[in-house]
Structure formats: C-alpha cells, structure tokens
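Shipment paperwork, digital attachment
Item: protein structure file
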Amino acid sequence: MMSRGHEKFSRRALLKRLGMGAALLPILESEWASAALCSGTSGPRRALFIVWANGMLSKINSWATPGVGAGFTLAPFMASLEPYRNDLLLLDGITYSFINDSPNPGETTGHGCFQGMLTGALYKSFGSSTANNIAGGQSIDQYIGNALKGKGYTGRTSLNTMVYSRSTARLSWTAAGAAIVPDDDPYNVYKTLFPGMTPVTAPPPADLPNMPMPVVMPTAMPATPTTGPVNMPIDKMLMMRKSCMDFVLSDLNRFSSIIGSADKLRVAQHLDAVRSIELQLTNQLMTTTNMPPSMGGPSTGAGGAGGGTVIPGVKPAPGMACQPPALPAAIATRDTKNFHTVTKMQIDLAVAALAADATRVVVLQLGDQGDPDIVLYNLGFKAAGTGDSTGDDNGFHEMAHQNGANKVICDTWFQSQVAYAIGALKGVADGDKTLLDNSVLVAMNNMRTGIHETRNVPVVMAGSCGGYFATGRSLTLPSNTAHNNGLLIAVANALGVPTQTFGYASYGGELAGLKA
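Attachment content:
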C-alpha cells in the first residue's frame, strides 16, 4: 500500500489537481494498463489448443523419431512441420488415465476421452454414448482464463470454436457438468472479435482436383492471399485516445511551469509515462493503416490472421497484430464439403484473437469425438452412404477404422493444418519476437491410431511460450504414465498461472522434461 505522501503525487492525485479527474482518469488508467494491446510490445503468454479425433497415426505410419534439433526425423506425413523444426516440441505419448479410472465406466475407448482431454478429471458420469459423457471438473482453458482475469486481465476468459460437429461431446467446461458450447460459425466469431466490422473477403482455399485414391497431399497448405490491409474501427478509438494523450501532455507541461523545482521531477516522471503511452498509440495508428510491408506494415503472405513476415535479424514493427483476417464470403459453414475452408477460417480467427489480446487461451475443436459424417472432399473423398453403424462409408471415422493408406492421407492433412497454424502465429510480430515465441500451440488427439488406444498418444507442441518450453526436440515419454494432467499443468505454469496439480490430483504435477 502506498504511503499518504506517495499517494499525494500519484497519477490519480495529480490529475485531480489538474482538474481532469472524473472524465479522464478511466481513459488514462485504462491506457496505462493496456496501451500495448495490439501494439506488439507487451508479449503476454498465450495458448492455442487444437484438438481432433481418430488418432494422429495409423497402423502403417510412425511418429517422429526422438532427438534434438537435426537429430530427430519427421515421418513423411509430418513433412509440413519441417520448416518449424526448431519451434517444435513433439511428445510421444500422453496417456488418458482418467477414462479407465473413472467410476462406473461406459465406453473406455479413445472416443470416450474427449470430455476429459482438457480437464484431466475423473468423469462425473458416463452417458449411454461417448457423446453424453460428463466431465468431472473445469477445463484448463477456463482455469487459466479465470486466473488471469483474477490478476486484472480484461479480455475473454477463453475463445472456444469448432469446425463441423453433430455431437454434444465438449472439450471445455466451466465446472463439472457445465459444458461450453463452442462456436462453429466463423462469421459469428468474427463479429464477436471485431464488432461492427465487415470481413474483407478472400477466395476459399482451392480444392485439390478429384483423382483416384490415394491422393498425394502437398507438404504444406498453400497460403490464401488477402485483399490487403484495411482500416479498422480501432483507428477511431486510437485517434480519440491519442487526442486525450496530447491534451494530458499539454496540461502537464503547463502545470510543470508553475510548480517548484522539487515537484518538477515528479511531474517529469508522469510526463515520461504519458509520452510512452502516446508513442505506443502512435505506433498502433501507423501500423493499422496502409503502411506497406517494406516499412513494417501488414503482409499478405502466409498466416493471414495477423500479417507481417518476420525477417531474421530485423525487429518486427509493433502493431502488426491488429490486422483482422480475411474470410471467404458466405460459405455454408456447417457443410462437411467446406470442412477444410472453415478450418482455415477458425485458425485465422484464433490467431487474430491471440494477437489482439482479446483472449489468452483459444480452444479449437476440429470435428467431434468420432466424426462419422465428416467427408474430407478436399482430399478427393466423396460421400458414399451409410453401410454400417460407423457413419458414411467414406467418412473420416470409417477411414480411421480402416487404419491404412486413406487414414495416412487424412493424417497428413491434419498435420498440415497444425503447420498452417504454427506459420500463422510465427507470422505475427510481438515486440521483438513473434506471436509464436510468446505462445504455445498444443495439438492433441483422443487416441493414438484409429483403433481407439488411450495410452501413449502423440502430441504436437510448438512455441516456447516466452522461453518456458525447450523447443526443437522430439521426446519419447514414459510409457503409460505420462498423464495428460501433467501437460495441462505445464501450459498453466507457462502462462503465469502457478499450478501444482490439476484435475485428478493423484496423477501428480507438471510433466517432467518440457521446460527450458
């Protein structure tokens, strides 16, 4: 607590003496706390979870070899991750012990794991189907988001989005039995993040040409060009704030001229602080307008959600994170034919939300716990009708059950989406680093391969989260004992939320070997 003498010269007391109290105090003090929003200067820690079903592997492909740096080998289906080798932390493999340890279990297969993947808690109850399982605790996104808000963060607790699901299976829970329904409409997500704006339109990702199976996937998803930077509504807000800053600076200079020398130093300190805020606002105004990429303005390259290509050895310009993503115009977001397009849209929005500090945690759910009706048309598959109880005969779930060449095609595509998200994060400037440097991406699946294993499941991590994680490594974890709880705890600690246990406390603390 400040002494009364110190309080006499506090920013609040000084402004009151200047006659600026009620109207200006909220503006200035808000700016003091959050002037770096979208400026790329604060570098808060963030997390992006991307979760899908049916395994990262099949019975005919293998995971990356263990090793450090150039010492590990990525499997062919993971080739899209190669450009980000030094940013990766590959784990083989996480075990979902809660599914077998929960009382009165229902189906204890990988499909049944969905509701506990981000909670690590024993289930409150098992339903008649895996879609009706009820989590027994809060999910990590809510836990972290609430803790950050308790420390004064004013953004969203989390952003929870989804791509095509007909199931009630949920990943995020505010508490045991209280599920969060993710938003599967990227246009609605856009309105939430950028109220009052109309999205810049861009062509959807090009479909691969129809060809006989198997389809050979490219090593990386091609970038979708945008139509260029746009002036955001934030510009008017920034202009107003900068005008307030100019007024404050003027009055502080005037006030300084009429006080004694003993007080001039204290006023000068306030002047320096206000000038710092004004400089950050000026940077934001410069970089949210049509500054060319050569001068640090938004780029139209890969990433799409934040712009800005980070050149090695060159300090990224602040403010580049404020650029909203371009979205394809008026597509049917709940049509499985657009699964690949909506996936890109939701990734771009996730990166934009993190870049603008609208939230510090995003959970993106690609499909549901089984995906029986998802047909990946962009890979050349076509709906074939339902011949049995597992959904469409060319659906992703059926491909996973086949566990062969078609599953590898699907696995390759999902890894390319992870690679795209990594590249998008890496393409956003965040102070003198990138958004990826200050974040951690965690890509998880509910089983190892398409045959429902709940143990030794691979995880792709990327980003050091401000130096917390040691990247450029591929690790083989202790078999059957590396509980998902330990991974969730590590993410919480990396985001500045000190955590000893999470979910089912008996599983222990942070997973060893991840930290730098």
